[in-house]
Structures are given as structure tokens and as C-alpha cells.
């Protein structure tokens, strides 16, 4: 039997997990609304946390909110709830991104619940990875994770990897000479060098990782034009292992599918002992984005470039309190 109402404390615990999801520059562009009487949680995008210059179509906002949506599903399954999700429930409200109806069940999704221990362990790592190969079975599992959410994950071969790395560095140069892009990045990054600062969003200096020396791993360097006291340099892996996440089409619904797939891949990777970082830099420039995909592959549109491997876990970055992003109606 499902309860007649859903109480705030129960949902607050789910949202506390959901807000650990990654988002562009850790802007955390989500809001949740609880409708207790019909056991429903609404997910909305927050336009005040958008990136109008580098994300004018709000693709990245959708990806981040969808990653939080998937994490909410994982948390709900671990707590014994079944979830029914409707994407974009009202066309006239484009930032009303999803509606989640919860039901108590004795048969919660075990595959989702199994990912729950990885939710608080997953952190972006902008540190050097080892050169250890990722076993084929692990790679296949990550690709299967994306497929379960309706997206595709492709681990490109050598020539395609090199082409993507070239595009990443082209995009780095473009951002470096674009004042508006730099100003937008500066808004969401800061040079704090110790955890526990007063901010609850953005990327602090201690999470930038070291600067690269003699290598070109696809790691967005938030400190390339901003001094960070005590920041070290390091040699990164010579042959980065990257993956491309994409969908056949490029609509807001596809972005929500891709964001959920992204988080499923990241949680599966964490469960498998991998670490990861992400970059969307070449995807933020329309003239570069089309070139990221393999022209002979079925993937129509790439939404994220991932770097995968073995190495140190990244540090935990600030998060907004769940109570600040949850409204009860």
C-alpha cells in the first residue's frame, strides 16, 4: 500500500543524493517541487544558473538536471520506491523538465539500487590517471549502461581520439581569447585552495587538479589564466582513454536522455573502480561540435566527452543544501 501523502523528510533524503550529480561548472541548475498529495516530485531547470554564452540552447543545463534526475531514481530505488518518469510534461513550460511519481514497492529496481553506494563516492577527478588498460568487460558494461537509458557510449579508436583531443585544445584556445566565455567561467570558478569554504556551488581551486606538463589529456584547466596559490604541475597519461556520449537526435528530450545516461555511466564506472573527468569544451562551439563525432558512426550528436581510467579520486566539491532546492506545494 502506498501512503496517501509523501512527507518532506522522505523526499529531502532523496534530493540530498540527487544534488550530488555533476553539472556544468558545478552550477547545480535544478529545483525540485514536492506535491505530497499525489506522490509526485517535479524537476525544474533554474535559468539563473544557466551559461548564456557557452550554453545558449541550455543543453548543458538539461544534461545536469537529468543527471540529478537519474540520481534521484537511484536513491528512490535504494529506499524501496518505484519511479515513473515523464519528461517535459508541459510544452508551454520548457524548463519543467520532468515529473517523477513515486510508489512504494516490494520489487524496486535492483540494478538502480545497486548503484546507490557509488552516489557519494563519485567525484570528478582532474588528476593524472595511470596507464592501466580498462578491461573490455568493463568497457562493455559502461556502453550497456548508456544503452539502458536510451543513449550510446562510444570509446573511439586511436585516430578518432587524436582528432577529438585536437578539437579539445582548439576549443581551449577559443575560450582563452573570448572575453565573454572567460567571464562566464570566472563566475563559477574560484581560487580557494582548501575544502570547506563558504561557497555552495562552482568549482574551487582545490578541485582544479594540477596543470599539465608535456601531455594533453582532455581536462578543462580552470586555472590556466587564474593563479591558484600552491598549485602544482604534473605529467598526465600519454594516451588518454576517452569516451563519447551521444544520441541520434538533438532535442531537449534527447538532452534529458543523455544526462541520465551520463550519470548511469559515471556511477557504473565508480562502482567498477574507475575515475572520470568530463569536458564539453569542443561541444560549446557549433563550428567544432559537429566534428567531434565519428562521421561513419550511428551516433548523431555528441553531448559529452569523458576521460576514463584508474587513478586518484577527485575531491568533493560544494553542493547547495537540499533544503534550498526543494519546495513543497
Question: In words, what does this structure look like?
Answer:
The chain has helices at 8-18, 59-78, 110-113, 116-119, 136-148, 158-176, 179-187, 252-271, 286-292, 322-325, and strands at residues 30-35, 40-45, 81-87, 96-104, 152-154, 189-190, 203-204, 211-212, 233-234, 241-247, 275-279, 301-309, 326-328. 43% of the residues are buried. The protein starts with 7 loop residues before the first helix and ends with a strand. The mean pLDDT is 93. The strands form 4 sheets. It has a 5-stranded mixed beta sheet with strand order 3-4-2-1-13. Helices cover 34% and strands 19% of the residues.
Note the main attributes of this structure:
single chain, 329 residues, alpha/beta, globular
Strand order of the largest sheet: 3-4-2-1-13
Order of helices and strands: HEEHEEHHHEHHEEEEEHEHEHE
Kindly, what is the distance between the CA atoms of the first and last residues, rounded to a whole number of angstroms?
A: 23 Å
Q: Portion of residues in helices? A: 25-40%
Instruction: Tell me, rounded to a whole number, the average pLDDT.
Output: 93
CA radius of gyration? 19 Å
Q: Supply the helix-strand structural class.
A: alpha/beta
- The shape, in one word, is globular
What percent strand?
Answer: 15-25%
Q: Which runs of at least 5 residues are low in confidence (pLDDT < 50)?
A: none
For the report, how would you describe the main beta sheet? 5 strands, mixed
Number of strands: 13
Treating each run of at least 4 consecutive H or I residues as one helix, how many helices? Answer: 10
Amino acid at each position: 500500500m502506498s501512503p496517501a501523502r509523501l512527507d518532506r523528510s522522505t523526499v529531502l533524503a532523496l534530493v540530498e543524493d540527487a544534488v550530488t550529480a555533476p553539472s556544468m561548472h558545478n552550477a547545480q541548475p535544478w529545483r525540485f517541487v514536492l506535491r505530497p498529495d499525489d506522490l509526485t516530485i517535479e524537476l525544474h531547470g533554474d535559468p539563473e544558473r544557466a551559461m548564456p554564452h557557452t550554453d545558449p540552447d541550455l543543453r548543458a543545463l538539461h544534461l545536469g538536471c537529468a543527471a540529478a534526475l537519474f540520481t534521484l531514481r537511484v536513491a528512490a530505488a535504494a529506499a524501496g520506491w518505484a519511479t515513473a518518469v515523464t519528461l517535459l510534461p508541459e510544452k508551454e513550460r520548457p524548463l519543467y523538465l520532468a515529473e517523477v511519481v513515486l510508489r512504494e514497492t516490494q520489487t524496486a529496481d535492483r540494478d538502480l539500487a545497486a548503484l546507490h553506494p557509488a552516489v557519494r563516492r563519485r567525484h570528478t577527478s582532474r588528476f593524472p590517471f595511470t596507464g592501466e588498460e580498462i578491461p573490455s568487460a568493463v568497457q562493455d558494461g559502461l556502453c550497456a549502461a548508456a544503452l539502458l537509458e536510451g543513449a550510446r557510449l562510444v570509446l573511439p579508436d586511436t585516430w578518432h581520439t587524436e582528432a577529438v583531443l585536437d578539437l579539445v585544445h582548439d576549443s581551449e584556445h577559443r575560450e582563452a581569447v573570448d572575453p565573454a566565455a572567460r567571464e562566464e567561467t570566472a563566475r563559477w570558478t574560484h581560487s580557494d585552495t582548501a575544502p570547506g569554504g563558504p561557497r555552495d556551488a562552482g568549482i574551487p581551486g582545490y578541485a582544479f587538479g594540477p596543470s599539465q606538463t608535456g601531455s594533453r589529456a582532455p581536462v578543462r584547466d580552470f586555472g590556466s589564466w587564474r593563479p591558484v596559490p600552491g598549485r602544482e604541475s604534473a605529467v598526465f597519461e600519454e594516451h588518454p582513454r576517452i569516451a563519447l556520449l551521444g544520441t541520434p537526435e538533438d532535442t531537449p528530450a534527447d538532452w534529458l536522455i543523455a544526462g541520465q545516461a551520463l550519470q548511469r555511466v559515471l556511477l557504473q564506472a565508480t562502482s567498477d573502480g574507475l575515475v572520470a573527468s568530463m569536458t564539453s569544451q569542443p561541444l560549446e562551439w557549433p563550428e567544432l561540435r559537429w566534428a567531434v563525432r565519428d562521421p561513419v558512426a550511428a551516433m548523431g550528436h555528441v553531448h559529452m566527452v569523458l576521460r576514463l581510467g584508474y587513478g586518484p579520486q577527485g575531491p568533493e566539491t560544494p553542493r547547495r543544501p537540499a533544503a534550498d532546492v526543494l519546495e513543497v506545494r
